[in-house]
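Q: Two folds, back to back.
A: First:
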Amino acid sequence: MSGAREQEGGDERTRLDKWLWAARFYKTRRLATEACDAGKVRIGDQELKPGRAVRVGERLIIVIEQLAYVVDVLGLSSRRGPASEARTLYRETEEGRVAREAAIAERKANLAGGPPVRGRPTKRDRRT
């Protein structure tokens, strides 16, 4: 009971897994918890546990599908609302955004460099 009162009383903290879910980085709290347990959410080099309290002003590094999001926490919420509300909880750093976009462009370039696909492969195509 006292934990709920602390949140209402203006204590500027919320659980990391709840914040990641509320900020729409993960579709469910379970996925957010698993990402924390797998070491995909960090502050600097320190891996964070799902129950750790997040505070306004912290810089998080969140790795999703090999892409790193570097975000500054601007607000706290333990309620998942609309996407427009979720975007107000964080701001992605310019360096992080540029690096992530470069990684996406590199991925696309690597995929486009393969041989052209003509449809369903024949037996001969599968042997080579």
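A: Second:
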Amino acid sequence: MIHKKRILTGDVISASMAKTIVVKINRQKVRPPYPKSYTVSKKYHVHDEQGKAKVGDRVTIEECRPLSRLKRWRLVSHKI
């Protein structure tokens, strides 16, 4: 059984750890009874092998096997 890996896009908010970045993902949600939208955000620890990504970069991340206690995502691409 093959599972499709999730791919997300977000902004780097921390790059101070070795081979690890923290990415913040913002999502828009809508209140069911009212046409009111609000933002929900979540932070992910991402594996960055080459250490290319810097704070403020827009990155694409992909789900992978557990690499450490917190890292379950890896860096696919980044834009400055």
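Q: And?
A: The two ends are 37 Å apart (CA to CA).
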